[in-house]
From TrEMBL:
Keywords: Cell membrane, Cell shape, Cell wall biogenesis/degradation, Glycosyltransferase, Membrane, Peptidoglycan synthesis, Transferase, Transmembrane, Transmembrane helix
PANTHER family per UniProt: CELL CYCLE PROTEIN (PTHR30474), PEPTIDOGLYCAN GLYCOSYLTRANSFERASE MRDB (PTHR30474:SF1)
GO molecular function, one term: lipid-linked peptidoglycan transporter activity
UniProt main location, coarse: membrane
Organism phylogeny: Bacteria, Pseudomonadati, Bacteroidota, Cytophagia, Cytophagales
Organism (species): Spirosoma pollinicola
Domain of life: Bacteria
GO CC terms in record: cell division site; plasma membrane
TM stretches of this protein: 12-35, 55-72, 79-98, 146-163, 184-202, 208-225, 232-250, 330-350, 362-389, 395-416
Name of the protein: Cell wall polymerase
Length: 426
């Protein structure tokens, strides 16, 4: 009989483990490259640099991983709502007792160490969603269940947004991927995608053109409808949808100019027109593109990135770590990193589909969705395809909160999966 709780047994998925340590090792080396100074010749283990500090975070992460793998797998299911409630209290506390870093009151400072609770709120929310959806009779087509699930997701979002941490708030949209897998009506994500597309179009094109497009689209839908479906009720519904779309497009300018804060408006403006104010609000994106483009096919070589060495790209060891990869390792290196993430996310999805319990499957899809969202947005913002919202590249960006939270998120799932593997070997 397999030893169900042996953290070092063959029950752990070794391919996922290999992909994880590959990401962490490459991330550490790129953090070192981002802070390396030819004049100082700092060591990879210099604790006064981000690379040395990241090594410390990696060491403490290994301890966390061992703790997760040692405990019984039922611990996470049993205390899922307890974790969620605790994180809600912590998110409230940080609003009053937190430290303000870069305009965001979302950090607890303990001497030289800073911890961001918002990173761990994603783990707690994923556990709470898995616990709730595991209850027999829960159905995502029921309004009551949808509202409760929406409340689980929205509550931490409101608290995180209150601390002025927009990027971390948007990550919670990744749970839609899991919800769709579990039976969320397809029209809900379709409405979300359509709203996002209209928002971008309203920023890029004159409103009159968009209105004409809406009328043409709805007219085409009516023409393609079977005659027996062209009832007065259906036509009125289509007309109402058109009115809502027109009103939504009209309100985009008001929302951008009167609701969003100045730095948020600037990020949207840079996304729409990358050439706007290249020495001001567009500096980050412009320099990120230059750094990545200068790497060409094979890159300039490890520790040879000039954009990195002369600090042209701000936050290069954190939010813009992908620039270091692109500049020093070129298109080939960037492709390898993206392939590594695709492999990791794909493996998580494959394992999630194999789970014997709904709790483990739901949680697995939450893990895959969160990592996918972070990778898509982080890489996208460095090449100008996404707004700069300040979220880290999983396992690569410098920072203890980020590394801890992603590692906890992943290894809880690996612990749950090890139980499935052990059961199959009986």
């Amino acid at each position: 009989m397999a030893r169900n709780n042996d953290p070092f047994s063959q029950n752990i998925d070794w391919l996922t483990l290999l992909l994880y340590f590959g990401c962490v090792t490459m991330g550490w080396l790129n953090v070192y490259a981002a802070v390396y100074s030819p004049e100082d010749h700092t060591s990879l283990f210099d604790m006064t640099t981000n690379a040395g500090k990241q090594m410390m975070w990696i060491g403490t992460t290994v301890i966390l991983i061992i703790c997760i793998l040692v405990v019984n797998h039922t611990f996470f299911d049993t205390f899922a709502f307890v974790f969620y409630g605790f994180m809600i209290l912590v998110l409230i506390l940080v609003l009053f007792a937190g430290s303000n870093i870069n305009g965001s009151r979302s950090w607890f400072k303990f001497g030289s160490v800073s911890i961001q609770p918002a990173e761990f709120a994603k783990v707690a929310t994923a556990l709470a969603l898995a616990k709730y959806l595991d209850v027999p009779g829960i159905n995502l087509t029921k309004q009551k269940d949808l509202m409760f699930i929406g409340g689980i997701i929205v509550l931490p979002c409101i608290l995180i947004l209150a601390s002025n941490e927009t990027g971390s708030t948007l990550v919670f949209a990744s749970f839609v991927i899991m919800l769709y897998r579990e039976g969320l009506p397809s029209w809900i994500p379709a409405v979300g995608i359509a709203a996002a597309a209209l928002f971008v179009l309203a920023l890029v094109f004159p409103k009159l053109y968009i209105f004409i497009g809406i009328v043409a689209l709805l007219g085409l839908i009516i023409l393609l409808m079977p005659r027996y479906n062209r009832t007065l009720a259906n036509l009125l519904s289509i007309g109402l949808i058109g009115i809502v779309m027109v009103g939504y497009v009209t309100g985009v300018d008001f929302f951008v100019n009167n609701v969003l804060q100045k730095h948020q408006r600037n990020r949207i403006k840079v996304l729409v027109d990358p050439k706007i104010d290249p020495l001001g609000v567009g500096w980050n994106v412009t320099q990120a593109k230059i750094a990545i483009g200068s790497g060409r096919l094979q890159g300039k070589g490890f520790l040879e990135g000039t954009q990195t060495k002369f600090d042209f790209v701000p936050e290069q060891s954190t939010d813009f770590i992908f620039c270091t990869i692109g500049e020093e390792h070129g298109f080939v290196g960037a492709t390898v990193v993206i392939a590594l993430f695709i492999g990791l996310i794909s493996r998580i999805v494959i394992l999630a589909e194999k789970q014997r319990t709904k709790f483990a499957r739901v949680y697995g899809y939450c893990v895959a969705g969160i990592i996918f969202f972070h990778v898509m947005v982080n890489v996208g913002m460095t090449i100008g395809l996404m707004p700069v919202i300040g979220i880290p590249l999983p396992f690569f960006s410098y920072g203890g909160s980020s590394l801890w939270s992603f590692s906890i998120l992943l290894f809880i799932f690996l612990k749950l999966d090890s139980r499935r593997t052990a059961f199959m070997r009986r």
